[in-house]
């Protein structure tokens, strides 16, 4: 075996309890002959689980057995771990816990962009506004007028959201402006609203709607037809309402992918989420990553949704896995920092958190510099 | 059988309590403090099954899969941690994964496991048999740390693993993970 034990050098500083190991180790080294591949497979898997993902992926090249093992088991173990752990942590950042303060901007820190993910619109608080919309409005009403701080936020991105027309009109009437970007989102409106929308909305101030000028809006009529909208279609909508009763239904206006975001903004979406991570947005992030980096991953998303991480990992491009994990880690770091606001100033993470590593809560609550805690493996 | 060792000599265990006798594969008997013995979930389980009645008599718990030489080494670890660790509930599998994944190896344990890899693996097996999750996790992480410092070629050589990929296959894998193929430095490891 390659390992060496230079006891002579260490002898002067042998820690308490280890002095008796000196002869013991020497004798053991003489007789021990077991090799890693002699161990049962689950030991190897447990060991590989301890290796961060990029390094682990590198080891797929060792042999076909390791490749299979890492791809189908170890990698999924990593992902499974992250998802489990992240979901646990997301619970600590439920919006409802903070709603009473109406101060979502505290999470924005110095950020100028806030991203809302809305995987399952919840209208329990307001029949008109879903939960993120409600919080956003409350935050502005409660603080925008009184606190200059809000002005540092110059862009709010809604992702996978269904926004009500009422919400948008409320936003437009706010005294403090910010750019509202809808990404893969819908606007829900009734036909009557659509009339108001086209007749009364001050188009000149519709910052979020600028893509209209470039034909990036589509209108879905029921589930049948799609139209591409431009600003010139305002009249079209009106006249269609009069002449086509099928419009007496809920319409959805879909903004085309990324058309209102710059390329860099799209690329930075997974980073921007740290401004405001929202529960259960993993699916969106994953879908985004798959589309961008692994469009041929086929059923990966379905496997993920079903919770079959083995199959998920097997069909997923490694880069997607790593980016997903990178995202999770980014969120984790943010949450750790957030949770650590009440952390003792006396803590010196490189010491206390390591020496007391057995304390399950220690690493979760500690902010530190990040040196002693979960690492971000991809930069 | 002779009583080979007693944990009562440990400096770190102040309160003399119930003594538990265990025997190794070779039949050598060790007498352990209850706190030390119960760090093994296997021994803890046996004691609970027996209603903890064996401490006062001469019954010996057989650990038939653990060789004496490895048990002596593990005993050092058990004594130290029995005296230094906080009382904690046994970790669930998930907790163990988290701990293994996130925690650094404390300095004492690093030195304890600064041994030949084969010895680490034997300790790992024995810790698994005795159900000492923390020690098993430390062994896994130690081996993982060694693997991280090695190139793919070094790992093949170290473990006698045959490269069964065709050049094309290997190149394909290399391309897939080219962005993480920064080979580790070949120096600076103790292992």
Write structural notes for this entry.
The complex is a heterodimer of chains A (379) and B (191). Chain A is an alpha/beta fold and 379 residues long. Chain A has helices spanning 7-10, 21-31, 41-49, 53-58, 64-90, 95-99, 131-144, 165-173, 191-200, 233-243, 263-267, 269-272, 282-293, 300-306, 309-315, 318-339, 352-355, 362-365; strands at 113-117, 155-159, 162-164, 179-183, 186-189, 217-221, 225-229, 251-255. Chain A has a domain at 95-265. Chain A contains 18 helices and 8 strands. In chain A, β6 (217-221) and β7 (225-229) form a beta hairpin. The longest helix of chain A is centred in the N-terminal third of the chain and has 27 residues, at 64-90. Chain A is elongated, with a radius of gyration of 27 Å. The two termini of chain A are 34 Å apart. Residues 1-12, 81-112, 190-261, 269-281 and 341-379 of chain A have low confidence and may be disordered. Chain B is an alpha/beta fold and 191 residues long. Chain B has a single domain, classed as 2-Layer Sandwich (Potassium Channel Kv1.1, Chain A), CATH 3.30.710. Helices cover 49% and strands 8% of the residues of chain B. Chain B is built from 9 helices and 4 strands; from the N terminus they run βββααβααααααα. Chain B has helices at 34-37, 41-49, 68-84, 93-102, 107-112, 117-130, 133-148, 152-159, 167-176; strands at 3-6, 19-23, 29-33, 61-62. Chain B has a 4-stranded mixed beta sheet with strand order 1-3-2-4. In chain B, β2 (19-23) and β3 form a beta hairpin. In chain B, α3 (68-84) crosses α6 (117-130), α4 packs parallel to α7 and α6 packs antiparallel against α7 (133-148). The longest helix of chain B is centred in the middle third of the chain and has 17 residues, at 68-84. Chains A and B meet through α2, α3, α4, α5 and α16 of A and α3, α4, α5, α6 and α7 of B.
């Amino acid at each position: 075996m390659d390992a060496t034990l230079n006891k002579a050098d260490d002898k002067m500083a042998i820690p308490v309890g280890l002095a008796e190991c000196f002869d013991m180790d020497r004798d053991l080294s003489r007789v021990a002959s077991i090799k890693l591949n002699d161990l049962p497979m689950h030991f190897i898997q447990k060991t590989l689980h301890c290796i961060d993902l990029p390094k682990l992926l590198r080891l797929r090249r060792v042999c076909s057995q390791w490749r299979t093992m890492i791809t189908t088991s170890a990698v999924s173990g990593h992902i499974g771990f992250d998802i489990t752990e992240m979901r646990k942590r997301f619970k600590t950042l439920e919006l409802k816990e903070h709603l009473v303060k109406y101060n979502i901007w505290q999470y924005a820190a110095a950020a100028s962009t806030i991203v809302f993910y809305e995987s399952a619109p919840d209208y329990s608080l307001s029949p008109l506004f879903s939960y993120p919309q409600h919080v956003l409005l409350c935050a502005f009403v409660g603080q925008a007028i009184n606190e200059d701080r809000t002005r540092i936020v110059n862009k709010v991105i809604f992702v996978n959201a269904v926004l009500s027309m009422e919400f948008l009109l409320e936003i437009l009437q706010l005294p403090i402006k910010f750019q509202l970007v809808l990404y893969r989102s819908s606007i829900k409106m009734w036909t009557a609203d659509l009339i108001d929308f086209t007749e009364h909305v001050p188009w000149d101030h519709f910052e979020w709607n600028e893509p209209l000028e470039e034909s990036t809006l589509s209108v879905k009529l029921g589930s049948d037809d799609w139209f591409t909208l431009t600003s010139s279609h305002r009249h079209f909508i009106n006249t269609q309402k009069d002449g086509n009763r099928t419009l007496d239904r809920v319409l959805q206006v879909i903004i085309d992918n990324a058309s209102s975001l710059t390329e860099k903004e799209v690329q930075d979406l997974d980073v921007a989420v740290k401004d405001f991570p929202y529960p259960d947005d993993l699916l969106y992030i994953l879908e985004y990553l798959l589309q961008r980096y692994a469009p041929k991953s086929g059923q990966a998303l379905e496997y993920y949704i079903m919770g079959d991480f083995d199959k998920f990992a097997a069909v997923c491009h490694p880069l997607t896995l790593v980016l997903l994990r990178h995202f999770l880690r980014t969120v984790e770091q943010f949450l750790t920092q957030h949770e650590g606001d009440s952390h003792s100033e006396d803590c010196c993470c490189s010491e206390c958190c390591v020496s007391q590593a057995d304390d399950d809560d220690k690493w979760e609550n500690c902010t530190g510099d990040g040196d002693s805690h979960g690492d971000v493996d991809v930069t | 059988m002779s009583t080979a060792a007693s944990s009562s000599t440990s400096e770190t265990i102040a309160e003399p309590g119930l003594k538990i006798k265990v025997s190794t594969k070779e039949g050598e008997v060790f007498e352990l403090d209850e706190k030390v013995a119960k760090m093994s979930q296997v021994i803890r389980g046996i004691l609970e099954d027996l209603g903890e009645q064996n401490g006062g008599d001469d019954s010996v718990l057989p650990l038939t899969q653990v060789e004496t030489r490895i048990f002596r080494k593990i005993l050092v670890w058990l004594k130290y941690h029995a005296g230094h660790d906080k009382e904690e509930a046994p970790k669930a599998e998930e907790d163990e994964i988290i701990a293994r994944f996130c925690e650094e190896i404390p300095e004492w344990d690093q030195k304890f496991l600064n041994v030949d890899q084969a010895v680490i693996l034997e300790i790992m097996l024995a810790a698994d048999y005795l159900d000492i999750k923390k020690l098993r996790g430390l062994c896994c992480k130690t081996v993982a740390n060694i693997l991280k410092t090695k190139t793919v070629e070094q790992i093949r050589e170290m473990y006698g693993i045959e490269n069964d990929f065709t050049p094309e296959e290997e190149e394909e894998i290399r391309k897939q993970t080219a962005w993480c193929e920064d080979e580790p430095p070949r120096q600076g490891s103790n292992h």
